[in-house]
Hints:
Oligomer: single chain
Mean pLDDT: 90
Structural class: mainly beta
Largest sheet: 5 strands, antiparallel
Radius of gyration: 18 Å
Number of strands: 9
Number of helices: 0
Amino acid sequence: MAEAATPAPVTPSITSHLKRDADGKPYIAGVKCGNCGHTYVGERNVCAKCYARNQMQPVRLAEKGKLYTFSIIHRSFPGIETPFIDIIVDLDDGAHIKGILKGVDPDPAKIAFDMRVKVDYQEVLPAGAKEKYLAYYFVPDNG
């Protein structure tokens, strides 16, 4: 008799809003207000825009958007490679999220406001950790 295949272990995520669907595909979870339609990253019970209570519905957030602002970080904690580009992205569904931009030189002349970006999920081994974690970054969306 054949043994059932053991499913691969699910990699824990770096943030509480980074989830996996039933097929194991990662996504960024958020909520959308049923009263005004504003979308947020993560969970919340009250809409910060219209103050509606108990109107928040879980949603899978957009994976594409545009760069709103950025900072080039030259100093960080030990074990974190610098420089890196810290960004805030306006996602296509209206949510706003912070992340790190990869695939672009950390030179202000090479970073354009409103440039199109997309989410890139990666398994990473944080400094001092013994196991890998699921994380998200942003990369230019050239397509």
